[in-house]
């Protein structure tokens, strides 16, 4: 009896395999980190072969922990760090270089070049996205321009491109021996090469970016059987769901009706609102993206506010400054002081994303005095996540013309109760954590389960969502607005630090 679903959750810093039962409860999990590679300032890379190895290892480990085998899994879903770009040889599976990670800023000159003809929103009408270092298209273009012979080999059909979902799907289903070269609409919508109306690659965009169609994967729905696992511990199990990580969290949080919103606190922070069958153009610095498409059903769209650095700032405090031994220590350190001491940390390490989209911004710490200690720094690190979230919430309310009554939250940072309380305080709204915090992997498993009939319909998924903890605002209006006003002042200090 196939009682379980599996989910590969391939994130920016680690890869996990989680086994869920029918109620969405975690039965088993295995996780392994992979190396973060920084060849020079602003460049961030991953080794795709290491990610593929870690994926195989965590599948085996998670199944072994629960004494389960391939015969117990009805299907596997994939969710992944979006925009991280891989190009590899069709004949061997060998990457032509390391993956260029979504945070990487090496294509800043290309953003400036393309923006000089038509502005930063030149392609927004078709793609829902501003020109930015964030998306895959310019990263792929950089590889084709800078790695010898890749352009001609791509044109000849010898090379394949994909975000991490595509690279894993191809390897899982056989690699050079018949591997499926496909992606889903959510990942495709993050390349800046997909037309949001046709949900297929756009000839005008491919021509502008000088990208041959031969290198691109087939665009499929988020919930269908793409192929089966060719070898290893999960051999023979259908791979039946693919969602970019933030869209997967939208599904995992059961935000399946227009107007429902979730915020994921991970390496970055990503707020998504389901806008139903309408792709809503943003006037306030948000992204218009595909939310999900289940099989042959009508696609659902989303508005997204993307913040580049949140959880990564805690890691930076740990790894670069050595102020904490492990990430969870940041809460204790932050609670060693009663407030931020007037200190604000704007983590524009790779520019500012929503709602500013300023590539030339860089990180600043403002408000330092002789009174400042490491506790104030830790508190400023946590508070920066909450301030950035409020900026995105305010932009989203203007775009959608909907006032949010509460915010559903998930991701690694929601275990930090100090942060969650401050988030509620600065938003002046309830913040709700779900019973199952692994919403990204859960969403991928839901998509896979729908495709193979493990779940009947979306209503069944909605009925499973339950709240675990709710935080209510406890900060006075005068103090709340003073803090936010000073934060906005600090943000302006980060603008235009890099001179073109």
Q: Can you describe what's shown?
A:
The chain has helices spanning 48-65, 108-115, 124-127, 136-146, 150-155, 164-172, 185-188, 203-209, 245-252, 311-319, 329-334, 374-400, 417-427, 439-451, 458-462, 477-493, and strands at 4-10, 14-20, 26-33, 45-46, 73-80, 85-89, 99-100, 159-163, 182-184, 194-195, 200-201, 218-220, 223-228, 238-244, 261-265, 269-276, 287-292, 300-307, 344-346, 364-366, 406-410, 430-434, 467-471. By secondary structure, it is of the alpha+beta class. The strands form seven sheets. It has a seven-stranded mixed beta sheet. A hairpin with a 5-residue loop joins strand 2 and strand 3. The longest helix is centred in the last third of the chain and has 27 residues, at 374-400. The chain starts with a strand and ends in a 7-residue tail after the last helix.
What are its keywords?
500 residues; alpha+beta; 16 helices
Distance between the termini: 61 Å
- Helical fraction equals 25-40%
Mean pLDDT: 93
Compute the number of helices: 16
Largest sheet: 7 strands, mixed
Number of strands: 23
The helix/strand class is alpha+beta
**Rg calculated over all Cα atoms:** 22 Å
| Largest sheet: spatial strand order | 17-18-16-15-21-22-23
Shape: globular
Low-confidence regions: none
Fraction in beta strands: 15-25%
Give the SSE layout.
Elements: E1 4-10, E2 14-20, E3 26-33, E4 45-46, H1 48-65, E5 73-80, E6 85-89, E7 99-100, H2 108-115, H3 124-127, H4 136-146, H5 150-155, E8 159-163, H6 164-172, E9 182-184, H7 185-188, E10 194-195, E11 200-201, H8 203-209, E12 218-220, E13 223-228, E14 238-244, H9 245-252, E15 261-265, E16 269-276, E17 287-292, E18 300-307, H10 311-319, H11 329-334, E19 344-346, E20 364-366, H12 374-400, E21 406-410, H13 417-427, E22 430-434, H14 439-451, H15 458-462, E23 467-471, H16 477-493
Parallel strand pairs: 1-5, 5-14, 9-12, 15-21, 21-22
Antiparallel strand pairs: 1-2, 2-3, 4-7, 6-8, 10-11, 13-14, 15-16, 16-18, 17-18, 19-20, 22-23
Helix pairs in contact: 9-14, 10-12, 12-13
């Amino acid at each position: 009896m196939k009682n379980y679903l599996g989910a590969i959750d391939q994130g920016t810093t680690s890869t996990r395999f989680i086994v869920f039962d029918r109620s969405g409860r975690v039965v088993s999990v295995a996780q392994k980190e992979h190396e973060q590679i920084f060849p020079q300032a602003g460049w961030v890379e991953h080794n795709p072969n290491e990610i593929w190895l870690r994926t195989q290892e965590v599948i085996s480990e998670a199944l072994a922990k629960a004494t389960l085998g391939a015969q117990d899994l009805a299907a596997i879903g994939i969710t992944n760090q979006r925009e991280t770009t891989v190009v590899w040889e069709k004949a061997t599976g060998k990457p032509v270089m390391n993956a260029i990670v979504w945070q990487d800023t090496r294509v800043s000159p290309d953003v400036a070049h393309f923006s000089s003809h038509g502005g930063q929103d030149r392609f927004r009408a078709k793609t829902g996205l501003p020109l930015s270092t964030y998306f895959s298209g310019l990263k792929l273009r950089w590889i084709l321009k800078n790695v010898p012979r890749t352009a001609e080999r791509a044109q000849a059909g010898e090379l394949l491109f994909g975000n991490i979902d595509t690279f894993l799907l191809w390897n899982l289903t056989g690699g050079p021996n018949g591997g499926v070269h496909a992606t889903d609409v959510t990942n495709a919508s993050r390349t800046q090469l997909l037309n949001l109306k046709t949900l297929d690659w756009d000839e005008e965009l491919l021509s502008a970016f000088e990208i041959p169609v031969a290198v691109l994967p087939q665009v499929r729905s988020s919930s269908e059987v793409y192929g089966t696992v060719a070898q290893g511990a999960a051999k023979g199990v259908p791979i039946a769901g693919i969602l970019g990580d933030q869209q997967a969290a939208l599904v995992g949080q059961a935000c399946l009706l227009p107007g429902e919103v979730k915020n994921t606190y991970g390496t970055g922070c990503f707020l998504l609102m389901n806008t139903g069958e309408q792709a809503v153009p943003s006037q306030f610095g948000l992204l218009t993206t595909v939310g999900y498409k289940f099989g042959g059903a009508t696609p659902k769209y989303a508005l997204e506010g993307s913040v580049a650095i949140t959880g990564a700032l805690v890691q930076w405090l740990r790894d670069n400054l050595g102020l904490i031994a492990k990430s969870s220590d940041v809460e204790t350190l932050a609670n060693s002081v009663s407030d931020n001491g007037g200190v604000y940390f704007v983590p524009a390490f790779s520019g500012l994303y929503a709602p500013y989209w300023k590539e030339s911004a860089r990180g600043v710490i403002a408000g330092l005095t002789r009174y400042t200690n490491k506790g104030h720094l830790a508190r400023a690190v946590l508070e920066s996540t909450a301030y950035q979230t409020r900026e995105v919430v305010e932009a989203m309310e203007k775009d959608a013309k909907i006032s949010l009554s509460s915010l559903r939250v998930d991701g690694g940072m929601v275990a930090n109760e100090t942060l969650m309380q401050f988030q509620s305080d600065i938003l002046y709204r309830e913040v709700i954590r779900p019973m199952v915090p692994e919403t990204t992997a859960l969403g991928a498993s839901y998509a896979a389960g729908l495709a193979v009939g493990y779940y009947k319909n979306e209503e069944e998924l909605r009925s499973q969502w339950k709240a675990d903890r709710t935080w209510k605002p406890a900060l006075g209006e005068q103090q709340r607005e003073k803090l936010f006003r000073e934060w906005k002042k600090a943000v302006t200090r980060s603008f235009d630090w890099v001179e073109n």
